[in-house]
Amino acid sequence: MSDYIEHDIIEGCRRNKRQQQEQLYKKYYSLFLKLCARYARDMHDAEQLMQDSFLKIFNHIGDYSGKGSFEGWMRRIVVNTCLDYLKSKYLKNAMQLYFPNEIHESMTFKVANHAVEKMAMRDILKVVQTLPPMSRAVFNLFVFEGYSHKEIANMLHISEGTSQWHVNNARKNLQQKIKDNKLIETKML
Amino acid sequence: MSSRNEFDILLRKKLREEEFEYDPESWQRLSQLMPPSSGSLNRNKRWLLFTSSAAVIGMALSVFFFFKFVENRPAQMDQLAQNKQPAAGKGTQNGVSPEYHKVIVENEPERYAQSAGNLPVTRKEYTPVVPAETNSNEEALGSAQHVAILPPAAQSPAQPDDETGDKGSGLKDEDIVVIPKEEVQAAQQLMGRDPAAAPEWGYDSYKTGSRNANVTSVGLGGGMSYGNLNAGYAIGVSARTKIAGDFFVDGTVAMLYNNNTSNTAINNGPSLNDDDYKFSRPGSFAQTVAAPAISPIQRLYYVQFNPSVGYQLDPNIAFSVGGDFQQMLNKNEEVVLQASNQAKILPNFDIGLTTKSEFSITPNIQAGLVYREGLNNLIKSEHSRYVNRRYIQVQFKYNLPVSGQK
């Protein structure tokens, strides 16, 4: 979005102009829906999360000082909204002291990469949505949002080691499920 | 800091490759959760301001004309008295001149009791008028069998121009013209009034200077309009009828022709790409920067229905407000106009509001000025999609009365 148009949209949103708000919503609809879909358990929750995020964006757009990327500012709001959702629903016991379902890494890794190449975006999102909530949150923050384990630990009140464990656990879970899906597809064929 | 794991990189890549298709209904759901747009708030505020101003102006005009009527009642009474000559042998024998213009009806004595010299009296019981300190003649009012016509000099106690030098006591017997009450009642019945009722000082005193003295009339007329995105012509028929007092209802059915030629020419300026001189279209400006062109000239035909309610401010001036409904005839689909990087739709069924002021040039010919404002964006919820067909129209009408005066 060019700076000139972005400036107009931001100003319009600040003045609560419906037209500019719709333009902003339309522009970032896909990006933020994908983001929310990675944190939610299904697409219905994902859309709800996205709408809640945009409501917060429109209500607090006056707080945007103009420094830094506007997209980055919005993205932080969306991620925080998703984390609040996870915390309120699923992460009541944020500190997981045990490490269940340790999966041994074998040929799963290579098979998964090959399968991911052929998967559609929606299918990948569905697989991500099957992850345990804490692992899902940590995996998204680390892989997609680019937070370090230290930052994730501060955000979720866990240790860095736990954060690393969740990322590995999520990765292995995804690879296993992708492989299982490929086996199912192969059988169906 | 992004993960460098191959699997992670692959996941990110796959999610970037595809996009979700935009769902407009999700925006509709979201917008319902949001506070009202400041645009609609401004629009509502403008409407509130407009209707409040119109209400205040209407009330002020009503009060003004109410007091004007009250002031003019004595003058109108004079007019009536002029039209009614005293009975033969009454008054003329005393050499009373037509200037004696005050007819006092027995059933409104209290109105005159307040000002000395206006007391209706019988001829026999007349006594010189006394200034307002006494109301000695009030008792005579209840039993008066006749009405008295008093000269204007008798109306105010403060008139010192009496030859005798008395204040308000210059009445003489020969100045009074007495008409039997029955004759006054008969005259009122001829005018269509209930004799027991207070005199009506309304349309009856109007002369035929304006067609609006008639109850119902029809008219044939036409006009030219000029607006924000269109210019055009109209021709139609109208019908008007009085409903109460000075209020009337008016209905107009017309055919409209609309085009945006002038706006297209102004906005489609010469290209800046070539060094060669470019002929500009008539009506455009050579120095105009080539703005995004308005879509090709649209020639549109409408049938219009314009009901309104109005008020006759003056025998020759009327003001009315009403709705305006126009149906496009020559196109079934909506016409989209591209202007200033924004697409707007010319509504197929256009709803608007009109205000009209009319002036009677002659009893049968009227000139009018109409202002029309489109209401589609206000009524429909598609967020300012529609072109506001706002224009001013100059009209001329020829009117034919259908029914006469009341």
Q: Which features would summarize this protein structure in a list?
A:
heterodimer; A: 189 residues; mainly alpha; 9 helices; globular; B: 406 residues; eight-stranded antiparallel beta barrel; three-stranded antiparallel β-sheet; 8 helices; 13 strands; elongated
Helix % of chain B is 10-25%
Strand order of the largest sheet of chain B: 4-5-6-7-8-11-12-13
**Helical proportion of chain A, percent range:** over 70%
Mean pLDDT of chain A: 84
- Mean pLDDT across the residues of chain B is 67
> What is the count of β-strands of chain A?
0
* Total E-strand runs of chain B: 13
Distance between the termini of chain A: 44 Å
Could you give a short account of the major beta sheet of chain B? 8 strands, antiparallel, barrel
Fraction in beta strands of chain B:
25-35%
Number of helices of chain B: 8
The residue ranges of chain A in which pLDDT falls below 50 over 5 or more consecutive positions are 94-107
Termini Cα gap of chain B: 91 Å
Largest interface, counted with CB-CB under 8 A?
A-B, 41 and 33 residues
- Rg measurement of chain B, Å: 35 Å
Oligomer type: heterodimer
Shape of chain A: globular
Tell me, briefly, the overall form of chain B.
elongated
**Run of helices and strands of chain A:** HHHHHHHHH
Low-pLDDT parts of chain B are 88-106, 115-149, 153-169, 198-212, 264-295
Please provide a brief summary of the model.
Chain A is an all-alpha fold and 189 residues long.
Task: Walk me through this protein's architecture.
- The complex is a heterodimer of chains A (189) and B (406).
- Chain A is mainly α and 189 residues long.
- Chain A is built from 9 helices and no strands.
- In chain A, helix 1 crosses helix 2 and helix 2 crosses helix 4.
- By secondary structure, chain B is α+β, with helices and mostly antiparallel strands.
- In chain B, strands 4-5-6-7-8-11-12-13 form an 8-stranded antiparallel barrel. A 3-stranded antiparallel beta sheet of chain B has the order 1-2-3.
- In chain B, strand 7 and strand 8 form a beta hairpin.
- The interface between A and B is large, with 41 and 33 residues.
